[in-house]
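Running co-folding for magnesium ion.
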Amino acid sequence: MAHSIGAGGVAQPSQPLRQRLQAQLQACLPHNPDLVLVTDLDGTLLGGTPAWRRRLYAWLATERHRVLHVFCTGRDLRSVARMLRAEEEALGLAAPHLVISDVGCTVACGLSLETVPLAVDPIEARWRGRPERVLPLLATLPGLSSQPVTSDRRLAYFIDPDVLDVRHLASIEAHGVDCLISDGKYLDVLPAGVNKGTTLVAVLNLLEVHPERVVTAGDTLNDLAMFETGLAGVMVGNAEPSLKAALPRLPNTYLARGEGCEGIVEGLHHFGYGPLLAGAF
Ligand SMILES: [Mg+2]
């Protein structure tokens, strides 16, 4: 092969994207995964009964050589780390291969939780200069209070829906950001054009996997962008009503009856992954 690993294991720009990505990760990516499973966390991978969650987590841990698992969450990395420590102990949730956090604004190795420059640098470039412009404007909007998250490439607020006038958000967006309300109580201010869907597509491009092998799963409006990619999607049964309302225009998204992990498994059966689940479900 014409490509090589440089001194110290640093990938050279001439290498295929996937090798360059792997060089920035501690987690070892499955070579030719049968499935890339992309799961939101709260309400999705962390949703459902403890029994269903335990079963799905055990399956993911057993199959990690052929199921490439990606978290795709609104949480920041510190919160993901806290959650992983707690859930690994409680229900056996293993670290994923990759984490897309901050509603698509951060990409990190699932094991080390170190950010992946190959994926994050282009997002950083879109965010530069934006906080300085929008923070003073957001400070004057009634009905917003800051969420205690790190502000890497995004700003996060709790909203009071009775007070916030969403029409004002258009004037914020005029400064090169997108305003995303989720679950009726969260506002995320993101670099324009960056969301869970666009970052997932960028990550899949780095992974060089066939889109036919990808299944996404989510439950709130910040997951809509994943479903809008056209990749196979599982809307879990406990999805928020405004997300379910989008279903008619999401032809490749399946609405599960089951909640959280049960819904994910149901969706995997729907999309033909029964043989991969055989024996476990
Ligand atoms: Mg969720």
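Result summary
The two ends are 41 Å apart (CA to CA).
The CA atoms of residues 49 and 108 lie 28 Å apart.
Job closed.
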